[in-house]
Amino acid sequence: MPQFEPSGFAPQLVWLVITFIALFLLMWRVTLPRITSVVAEREVRVSGNLDKAEQLKAEAEGILVAYHKEIADARAAAQAEHARAARRPPR
Fold first, then answer.
1. Three-state DSSP class for 73?
2. Rounded to 5 degrees, what are φ and ψ at 88?
3. DSSP assignment, residue 19?
4. Which residue, 43, 61, 41, is CA-closest to 53?
């Protein structure tokens, strides 16, 4: 196999270094800034969504409390009406 021939090690190492440097520079200058901007944008979007979710959760809890209060008021009114109807003499 020609890649294992000792006389060809030096040129292979030179091309390995050149290729490594080229790929390193490409990743450092092009790919890494894009990834960084995408991650930052996603972090902003996620934190905004979490804030909105907390706001909606608080609103839903308020609505649930109001709902339970309305149900309790309706039950109390129904029980009062039932008690009043039970006290009336039959006709």
1. helix
2. -70, 140
3. H
4. 61
Instruction: Identify the DSSP state of 7.
Output: G
pLDDT band at 57 (very low <50, low <70, confident <90, very high): very high
Q: How far is CA 6 from CA 2, 3, 66, in A?
A: 9, 8, 84
Chain centroid to CA 17: 41
| Joined tokens for residue 80 | 């009062």
- Measured CA to CA, the distance from residue 53 to residue 57 in angstroms comes to 6
**pTM of the predicted model over 0.85:** no
Cβ–Cβ under 8 Å, residues 12 and 3: yes
